[in-house]
Write a structure and sequence with these properties.
Elements lengths: L2 E3 L2 E2 L10 E2 L8 E3 L2 E2 L7 E2 L8 E2 L16 E3 L4 E4 L45 E5 L9 E3 L9 E5 L2 E5 L6 E6 L3 E2 L5 E10 L10 E7 L5 E6 L13 E7 L10 E10 L9 E23 L9 E2 L10 E3 L5 E4 L6 E6 L3 E2 L5 E10 L9 E8 L5 E6 L13 E7 L10 E10 L10 E14 L1
Parallel strand pairs: 1-4, 2-5, 3-6, 4-7
Antiparallel strand pairs: 8-9, 10-21, 11-14, 12-13, 13-21, 14-20, 15-20, 16-19, 16-21, 17-18, 17-20, 18-29, 21-32, 22-25, 23-24, 24-32, 25-31, 26-31, 27-30, 27-32, 28-29, 28-31
């Protein structure tokens, strides 16, 4: 139950033209689309006769073998699950010993599906839904250059990565964005990003931002990596960054997300002539195995150490409340209002996964009229941020009759003593004249849990 597909290997022509040398036994496997210099069409060599496998151009006999197109979901983007109707579904060894243990990822009946998503060990996968290697333009990522008020970045698409440069400007913002990616309600997803830089010193790397934007409701999960800390990559040390998200899918529009790789050159001391590169990006499903509450704010008696940020130029200041068992913010009628409450410092640890759960309400009945609110976790020291935005013009907003919870899942990188603190923020952003700007938003509670993810 392996899938070996769309690989290129050099230097095997002397092996008789074959690509995959197993030196033994193949069963319930897909071997398809592999090429090499001087290969001559064969997919395997030096193997016993395979059984119940799907092998391109196979004409070697054996029991249960097929050579029909396996019908992968999206092989160009690394998704090698089987489409409905694939000839590999229920085509593996019929002995119950080889049955699919879990449906899904197995399809059809419990009989073995040929390939990696079938068989007795198919439970517990972190399903690799999308994988971008940027080896060609087939990944369909697109560049957005000229944005109002900012200088455009330069972009490059080269074998193995996509890149951005600020062209020496300290007022640059542009980005690459992915095709739509389809997700399901109630699942936890992880996006992993491998980023490199042409700068030899990570302190010189320009600021970049990694985003997951949920379509329809326009909720966003954002990670910012600044240039002035060791969290940034360098020419000699590419780095991985993870963004976890758990979407709330209530309409068809909500089932799509888009990923973005942004450059934000703001600081004059950055090496703004350098390049940053997205080398690889993948999306998979994760599962929470345990969760332990380590902190809770319920504002039952007072503001519990939270502070109001006050006037932030050039915006109007909201009015605030810390009575009634919650924190409150109101634009007081203004459509140019932004400010926030923020928590005391909270200690966090390296390589742990945290879930911050915000419980929200508002003073009005129609969620479409609720002003925009932003929920943030900011890592101090390195100033990395994980952000969730809840807009007023969708049913994701809270209402007086329907409180809602919003989760931010984050895994900090703690490399210095200044990195082991986080601050939580509850913001109001009133910009839409259609909103009920005299209404109130309330943060009812915040809990912080440490969670474990099982494969």
């Amino acid at each position: 139950n392996n899938t070996i597909a769309n690989n290129w290997v050099g230097g095997v022509g002397a092996r008789g033209g074959g690509l995959c040398g197993c030196g033994g036994f193949i069963a319930n496997c897909i071997i398809w689309g592999n090429t090499s210099y001087g290969m001559g069409g064969a997919q395997i060599y030096s193997c016993d006769t395979p059984l119940y496998s799907c092998i391109q151009d196979w004409a070697g006999g054996g029991i249960g073998n097929i050579s029909a197109e396996p019908m992968f979901v999206d092989p160009a983007n690394g998704d090698y699950r089987l489409l409905d109707g694939s000839p590999c579904i229920d085509a593996g060894d019929p002995d119950p010993e080889y049955n699919d243990a879990c449906l899904p990822p197995g399809k059809g009946t419990e009989r073995n599906d040929i390939g990696a998503y079938g068989g007795p060990h198919n439970c517990g996968w972190i399903s690799d839904y999308y994988h971008y290697y940027f080896n060609s333009g087939e990944d369909n990522w697109q560049f957005v250059g000229d944005l109002p008020y900012f200088s455009p970045a330069s972009s490059v698409r080269e074998p193995g990565h996509i890149g951005l440069s600020a062209n020496g400007s300290s007022n640059c913002f542009s980005y690459w964005y992915s095709p739509d990616v389809w997700i399901e309600d109630g699942k936890l997803y992880r996006s992993r990003w491998l980023v490199s830089s042409s700068a030899s010193n990570p302190d010189d790397t320009v600021q970049f931002r990694l985003r997951v934007n949920q379509k329809g409701s326009w909720q966003s999960w954002t990670r910012v990596v600044n240039s002035f800390n060791q969290q940034a990559p360098s020419a000699s040390e590419p780095k991985w960054y993870d963004l976890f998200f758990d979407p709330r899918v209530t309409t068809n529009e909500d089932s799509g997300v888009t990923f973005s790789f942004d450059i934000m050159s703001i600081y004059p001391w950055d090496d703004a002539n350098s390049w940053i590169y997205l080398e690889e990006m993948m999306v998979d499903e994760a599962r929470v195995s345990t969760s332990t509450e380590i902190l809770r704010y319920d504002f039952a008696g007072d503001n519990e150490g939270w502070q109001f940020a006050g006037v932030i130029s050039p915006y109007d200041e909201p009015i605030t409340s810390s009575a009634g068992g919650h924190l409150g913010l109101s634009p007081a009628g203004s459509t140019n209002c932004f400010s926030y409450w923020y928590s005391p410092d909270v200690g966090i640890e390296d390589a742990k996964l945290y879930l911050a759960r915000f419980e929200m309400s508002s003073s009005i009945l129609d969620p479409d009229e609720v002003v925009q609110t932003r929920l943030r976790v900011n890592q101090k020291g390195s100033w990395q941020g994980w952000i969730r935005v809840v807009n007023s013009y969708n049913q994701q907003a809270p209402a007086a009759a329907e409180w809602k919870t919003y989760d931010i899942i984050f895994n900090p990188d703690v490399t210095a003593s200044t990195d082991n603190l986080a601050v939580f923020s509850f913001d109001v952003m009133s910009f839409d004249p259609a909103d009920a700007t005299i209404s109130w938003l309330f943060l009812e509670s915040l809990t912080l849990n440490e969670i474990d993810v099982s494969p």
